[in-house]
Write a structure and sequence with these properties.
DNA-binding; alpha/beta; Rossmann fold; 227 residues; 41% helix; two-component regulatory system; single chain; transcription; WH-like_DNA-bd_sf; globular; five-stranded parallel β-sheet; Sig_transdc_resp-reg_C-effctor; 8 helices; Arc Repressor Mutant, subunit A; four-stranded antiparallel β-sheet
Length: 227
Amino acid sequence: MRQLEGIKILLVDDEESILQFLELGLGNEGAIIKTATNGEAAISIAGAFKPHIVVLDVMMPQLNGFDTCQRLKENGNNIAIIMLTAKDDVADRVQGLRLGADDYLVKPFSFSELLARIHARIRNQFPMLLSAVRYGDFTLDDRRKEIKLGEEVLELSPTEYELLKLLLANHGSVLSKTVILDKVWGYDFGGEQNIVEVYVRSLREKLGDKEHRIIRTLRGAGYRMDL
């Protein structure tokens, strides 16, 4: 199953090598791709193409990513914008988010991380476009609130489902207990961080992950799901 079948993505970057790499990778996932090497071209293409997702570089000549983001959002397009930046600058991230960006990635980034961010944006803004998403041997159907391992439907509590969904969507990346608590239990959760360990242990039992090869513990850092 190709995970992005029918999803329209506009890639905007003045580096041809990055455009080619992302176009190939996302195209192999089934996405419909258009590319632009500058902001003005991106705005023109978006008007007719009507992308679901725009992957937008910040540092471009002429019209930069911030101005492009603002104009795309002002045009009333229902799009999700993921901005790319070459530096991990909090001020840049804040500015982009204030102008309407939906997410941020710092270069260099892994393709799997970008793919996970794209899926997150689709689930949030275009859930009707995704019936089921494959992550290795797992199949996640968010409309049915169901996760399969192989052909077997996992018997999960609502909290276990949300935790496993978070780990799957961010597979390959380390998630701290603080991030997990915020995403699954909510920022105002008043309990102990140990609750994360309890639920991870329960998930491992249901996945038959006795060796902790699927959900790995990185001491002092958090958890990483490997597929």
